[in-house]
Amino acid sequence: MSWMKDLFPINRSLSGDGNRETLNYLQTIIPEMKIKFFASGEDFFDWTTPDEWNVIDAYIELQDGTKIAEFKKSNLHLVGYSEPVNQVIEKSELLQHLHFMPDFPQAVPYVTSYYERNWGFCITKEQLESLGDGPFRVLIDSKFKSGEQGGVLNYGEIYIPGISSQEILFSTYICHPSMANNELSGPVIATALAKYLTENEHHYSYRFLFLPETIGSISYLSQNLHSLKRTLIAGWVLTCLADNGNFSYIPSRAGNNYADKISRSVLAKFWPPFLEYSWLDRGSDERQYCSPGVDLPVCSITRSKYGTFKEYHTSADNLEFVSADSIFESYQLFLAIISQIENHRVPKIDVLCEPQLGKRGLYPNLSRRDAYSNDLKNLQNVISYLDGAHTIEEIADICGIDRIEVEKFVQLLAEKSLIQT
């Protein structure tokens, strides 16, 4: 909770000084974090990273000299990626650039314009009603920096190696300004989990990503998809984990991979009742990790799902909306997921097609009708399910053999350097 309080005032966006400040802060807690970047203007799949954006000041000055919508008092007052403005305008023009919430009059909405140059302010309905007739002075002191000028999109990555090269992914985002549940619950819980794993033994390898949402995961996947497809057995997107709602589970597009199975198992065992949504209800970076052709085993667990609570994407998603108890319980949930993964091996064969068992002394070199023993058949059946998505228990059930026998086969294949365990 103290980490969240320290990070709350920082102006995060897709890029800029606030993102670097956030990552630098987290790096003091978990020094294993590497702070990396993509250059502004680079193309990744169908997207282009936008120019870096930074803000010095922004406000609206009323006719009597009073300032409202002051960026320095709340960074949510400024539409994200607003271009520079310094002029006096009439009320009719100002109204075209104001955003408010008619049904939530005390709240300031969160609005962005990342991929088209624009400007605007976000205010409460009460502020709108007390504007007066104008004219108004509008100041937005912001700067854009292209890739040629050194503009970058920063992200953080923590890789914690284990005995196995097979890995678990936790992905979260660092692109929202002052919002506690929707933004900061993910990074602080990811940091706590990474810190736990650096201090405790574990079999699998773990990767943590702190990215700007959407463009960050797309950019990362464009450079790392091949390796993730080879090593990743399960992953989760961390967001909206600090309010008091029941846990919610958003499945992968496939709906039945190892991450889905672990999520349902842990939630049903330790945190019932929980809400299970459809893939059609997705909205965070599981969209990218599970997109056609990417198809990674990644799902999401939240408390109140993004978009379902009144405070979502408003100034009401503040430090009073979240609680230390909820943060800790969410942390415990993911520790339980890690524990279940660590205690339930998900072996994966290390070659494509059937391995050549004969040259390893596991298959008779003389082919005869009676050479195909029951043990050999069981071994080949087990191999056919060593896809990195089935646990040893599941393979034993499918093949109709004892779990201990499956473990012996897995150990034998590992000794022959045929398997990742």
What are the key terms here?
Aminopeptidase, Arc Repressor Mutant, subunit A, 3 domains, eight-stranded mixed β-sheet, four-stranded antiparallel β-sheet, 18 strands
Distance between the termini: 36 Å
Please tell me how large the radius of gyration is. Answer: 25 Å
CATH second-level architecture of the largest domain: 3-Layer(aba) Sandwich
What name does the CATH topology of the largest domain carry?
Aminopeptidase
Number of strands: 18
Look at the helices and sheets and give the structural class.
alpha/beta
| Portion of residues within helices | 25-40%
* Shape field: elongated
Strand line-up in the sheet with most strands: 1-10-12-11-13-16-14-15
Largest sheet: 8 strands, mixed
- Unreliable stretches: none
Average pLDDT rating = 94
How many separate domains make up the residues? 3
Number of distinct helices: 12
Query: Which strand-content bin applies to the residues?
Result: 15-25%
Q: What is the CATH superfamily classification of the largest domain?
A: Zn peptidases
The CATH class of the largest domain turns out to be: Alpha Beta
The arrangement of helices and strands along the chain is HHEEEEEEHEEHEEEHEHEEHEHEHEHHHE
Write the layout of secondary structure elements.
Layout: H1 2-7, H2 17-29, E1 34-39, E2 43-44, E3 47-48, E4 52-61, E5 67-68, E6 85-89, H3 91-95, E7 98-99, E8 121-122, H4 125-129, E9 136-145, E10 152-160, E11 167-173, H5 180-199, E12 205-211, H6 215-231, E13 232-238, E14 248-250, H7 258-270, E15 275-276, H8 286-289, E16 298-302, H9 324-343, E17 348-349, H10 374-384, H11 392-399, H12 403-415, E18 419-420
Helix pairs in contact: 5-9, 7-9, 11-12
